[in-house]
Amino acid sequence: MGVKQAIKSLDAFPRAEEHLLQKTQSGALVSIVGLVIMAALFIHELTYYLTTYTVHQMSVDLKRGETLPIHINMTFPSLPCDVLSVDAIDMSGKHEVDLDTNIWKLRLNSHGHIIGTEYLSDLVEKEHAADKHDDEKEHHDDSNKKFQALGFDQEAENMIKKVKQALVNGEGCRVYGVLDVQRVAGNFHISVHGLNINVAQMIFGGATHVNVSHMIHDLSFGPKYPGLHNPLDGTVRILHDTSGTFKYYIKIVPTEYRYISKEVLPTNQFSVTEYFSPMNEFDRTWPAVYFLYDLSPITVTIKEECQSFLHFITRLCAVLGGTFALTGMLDRWMYRLLEGLTKPSARGGVYR
């Protein structure tokens, strides 16, 4: 018996006799409020446990010998596809003019709708234009003599006629695709620089008449990950009665996104500043849209993480236990307050 009594003395949760327990309306109200609070906190903790969050880490970029993918999707509403070219140059000395590998052009009418074939690459479009104008050359003998007098060959003559007609019709062009460039600082630009200077002069009558208004639907340097915001997406720059060169200075930050499934997604995020240089009649350059990029030596690692089950149980016990203890204290205070208010009135009735 002595051992049993000793064990009972260690009980931290003594039970009161049933006839000594008193249930009150105030206690019921506090219990209901406490249960509502505990249910709300339980749902909040469960939601937090099931939700993933991201942790950012920074380190020195150790990548070497890899290429940098540049995803382009832009619309030029005032320039036909025949005059647009995509050129790229980097600090390693690599210079590519009028890229057509993995870069596609989509002809648009004045309302922005697709004309003819949906997907047209540079080479396909040039061949199509040459075939079409070869069939029509018999109807333009007089104009051909004029171009030949200026020193243009048949291909240049056809190009000039086609582009002038496209400008009259209000044609535009959508340029999209992927550029794979060296992982060093450089730039790429979209312009009319692929044209012979004399051909460009015949088409536009001067650099001040080249309208490089553009809309950037998408510009990124790798695949997208959850929460990524590319600052140039949705950019619209429309010129009215003027011309000039747009320059976007881009700082690329190498990024790794690690999913909770341990899958790793290498990509890049970037920041950008913008500069516009108006064109005047004395400038010797032609308008263009430049994207000048440089790479940061720091790489950012973004990890998806979630709360551990033990952490969830610990927080749940702390929250529910704390709420239960607080409601118990509140119940005792309310009981003593009501008891103190009712007893004097009861005593007053006895003495009367």
TrEMBL record:
<dbReference type="InterPro" id="IPR012936">
    <property type="entry name" value="Erv_C"/>
</dbReference>
<dbReference type="GO" id="GO:0016020">
    <property type="term" value="C:membrane"/>
</dbReference>
<dbReference type="GO" id="GO:0005783">
    <property type="term" value="C:endoplasmic reticulum"/>
</dbReference>
<feature type="transmembrane region" description="Helical">
    <location>
        <begin position="309"/>
        <end position="330"/>
    </location>
</feature>
<dbReference type="InterPro" id="IPR039542">
    <property type="entry name" value="Erv_N"/>
</dbReference>
<dbReference type="InterPro" id="IPR045888">
    <property type="entry name" value="Erv"/>
</dbReference>
<feature type="domain" description="Endoplasmic reticulum vesicle transporter C-terminal">
    <location>
        <begin position="140"/>
        <end position="331"/>
    </location>
</feature>
<keyword id="KW-0472">Membrane</keyword>
<comment type="similarity">
    <text>Belongs to the ERGIC family.</text>
</comment>
<feature type="transmembrane region" description="Helical">
    <location>
        <begin position="28"/>
        <end position="50"/>
    </location>
</feature>
<dbReference type="Pfam" id="PF07970">
    <property type="entry name" value="COPIIcoated_ERV"/>
</dbReference>
<keyword id="KW-0812">Transmembrane</keyword>
<keyword id="KW-1133">Transmembrane helix</keyword>
<protein>
    <submittedName>
        <fullName>Endoplasmic reticulum-Golgi intermediate compartment protein 3-like isoform X4</fullName>
    </submittedName>
</protein>
<feature type="domain" description="Endoplasmic reticulum vesicle transporter N-terminal">
    <location>
        <begin position="7"/>
        <end position="96"/>
    </location>
</feature>
<dbReference type="GO" id="GO:0030134">
    <property type="term" value="C:COPII-coated ER to Golgi transport vesicle"/>
</dbReference>
<dbReference type="Pfam" id="PF13850">
    <property type="entry name" value="ERGIC_N"/>
</dbReference>
